[in-house]
């Protein structure tokens, strides 16, 4: 996709951080933008800052299929068919898996993974039916590659978003719809304050809130990459039809180290002929799918 002008975008988590940066960048390209967020006050503040008649705000919970469908209908009624989807909403829980409760799992996966699933299930059938192409950007994270003990459930959710996005990219390529996985590192945002929007119905925590730690997290995130820089790199990645969009340059060596460890652990030896025959076919089909998704 080279030209964004005249299209309509739907951005979840659009009222702050990366989402708001994307809204600014897209409006500057002549795109109509629907900002979806769970915080009405943040939506109001964002619309005041943007001061653009081509932007609207929609309050919704991305973990709700019903609310997602209703917001999508409202966005398209007011702005026209959506062909740019940014499944960006995300929250974080800075604790290990063994310290977590079922409510912790349901909350984090509900937003970070099911929010992406709901965005795909809501918009992709519409985009395919219209046949006008488009692009889906799912915000994963460098945490979709680099998993330490904390934040455990967050890592799980982002690994899943990465796998979902890659599979979706291959299936949508024949329809002229691109898919990218946005994998940022530290960004200046309010994700450290995720507990502020945790629903009461999922309030059973595996570990009490560490308020002092959250104060430190706020300081750390204040030094993160500016969301406008992330947004500019994201639009560049869409134009180049990249699958992985890596805004931060500081992870290259660490990624190489991790993948070298994986290859070092991989066994040597010969597989049975029957299994090799199957894998050769699968490998060739996978190679073709990757080439088609890259337009080669």
UniProtKB/TrEMBL annotation:
It comes from the Bacteria. Residues 7-190 form the Ketoreductase domain. InterPro entries: KR_dom, NAD(P)-bd_dom_sf, SDR_fam. Keywords: NADP, Oxidoreductase. Belongs to the short-chain dehydrogenases/reductases (SDR) family. PANTHER family: DEHYDROGENASE_REDUCTASE SDR FAMILY PROTEIN 7-LIKE, RETINOL DEHYDROGENASE-RELATED. This is SDR family NAD(P)-dependent oxidoreductase. The lineage of its organism: Bacteria, Pseudomonadati, Pseudomonadota, Alphaproteobacteria, Parvularculales.
